Amino acid sequence: MKALFAADALNPGVRRREVFGWAMYDFANSGYTTVVLTAVFAAYFVGAVAGGRPWSTFAWTAALSLSNALVMLSIPVMGAWADRRAAKKRLLMIVTAGCVLSTAALAGVQPGGVVLALVLVVVSNACYAWGESLVAAFLPELARPEAMGRVSGWGWSLGYLGGMLALGLSLAYVLWAQAQGQSADRFVPVTMLITAVTFGLSAGVTFALVRERPAAETASASVALGWRSSLRQLGQTLREARQYRDFLWLLGCAVAYQGGVAVAVALAAIYAEQVVGFAQQETMALIFVLNIAAMLGAFVFGYGQDRLGHKRALGITLIGWAVTCIIAALTTTKGGFWWAAVIAGLCMGSSQSAGRAMAGVLAPPARLAEFYGLWTFAIRLASILGPLSYGVITWATGGNQRLAIGFTAVLFLVGLALLQPVDMQRGRQRALQPSRPSGGD
């Protein structure tokens, strides 16, 4: 662990074991996105729970959009409150419990149980997203600014390993169950329990090792400060947002490209099975390989972006994403889709790692959870626009998912265009300066 978590990458007073604990949360929650949102439950919902009806893909994307809307509206206030109360870890424990329990409850969903499935997906995905934002806010407390790419890459790399563990256990069970002649309505619920248990146990490492570090402003804040005060602080942040123009350009970029990433996460298995003709076990194997590629992408680009520069590294991956969408839209063979999945995996890990690190560099150090709340606001908005546009296009065109995935390439190209005005050096200098009154420029 010493060789991996190099001391020169960490802030003074930060121990390697704490960084490992922080990275373990990525390990823990990746099983949820991999098994529930991507590889297993998404396709199970469309094909079995909703019976493959014309509206089923749209219903799935609408549920994800609703949960993301809840997060988008709540997380900036939650982040501001957590900064004031030094409560990031406390809130992280609460939302983690919510995601684990609602994921386990998905085991009770049977064919025809559309309403129950959608409610549980909304709850679990919202809790997942809240946790993702809260844990990201610890990154700038742990890593030096010049090493945030590396440390973020460590987390994402370990995260994809966690996703592969949950998916690997699930795949092993599915293959055994199919050999016993069991149908999907019997073995899919068990994969939800496997995912929930893996998430809960792994997150316990994070809670045991990660410390809460209140900033000087937080430590002196009144204990009586409440939710309404946090709302006022958020309003002030939004009024002052034009002072952090590079952070704002990054948010705009994230809205575009993360919309495309959300399509890949939410609809890859549905596309593979309904358009390309993959069987369920083939889809799970595909997503497993995608996670290997994503782990390598996050780790390699985590080091590479500190040398290339965060902006350039992110730009390269956005081009790769656009190419992936074009290949997926045009290919008619499983082999061609395998190539698209591998490229997508490499881009997935690197783009997620680079974006999180860039947000940490451009955010004011005393307001990390609040600004990561704004970052999550942008990502959740993207997670509404991306999958929902895919669902609308598919429904409106009578099920033409090739056209929908082709449109997704446009999202990555728009993100690339919005990335160009970002100046990392100027943005970091501004983040380190005291906030000016909202009437200033």
Considering the chains and any ligands shown, give keywords for the structure.
441 residues, mainly alpha
Outline the structure in words:
The protein is mainly α. The protein contains 17 helices and no strands. Helix 1 (16-39) packs antiparallel against helix 12 (280-308), helix 7 (148-179) packs antiparallel against helix 14 and helix 12 packs parallel to helix 14. The model is unreliable at 216-226 (pLDDT under 50).
Q: How do the strands and helices of this protein lay out in sequence?
A:
Blueprint: H1 16-39, H2 41-49, H3 56-85, H4 88-105, H5 114-136, H6 139-142, H7 148-179, H8 184-209, H9 216-219, H10 227-240, H11 245-276, H12 280-308, H13 310-330, H14 334-362, H15 368-396, H16 401-419, H17 424-431
Helix pairs in contact: 1-7, 1-8, 1-11, 1-12, 3-5, 3-10, 3-15, 4-5, 4-8, 5-15, 7-8, 7-12, 7-14, 11-12, 11-14, 11-15, 11-16, 12-13, 12-14, 13-14, 13-16, 15-16
Helix content percent band: over 70%
Number of helices: 17
Structural class of the secondary structure composition? mainly alpha
Order of helices and strands: HHHHHHHHHHHHHHHHH
How many distinct beta strands?
A: 0
**Radius of gyration, whole Å:** 21 Å
User: What is the molecular shape?
Assistant: globular
Q: Largest sheet at a glance?
A: none
Uncertain segments: 216-226
Beta strand %: under 5%
- Average predicted local confidence, pLDDT: 85
Distance between the termini: 45 Å
Please sum up the structure shown.
By secondary structure, the chain is mainly α. The chain is built from 17 helices and no strands.
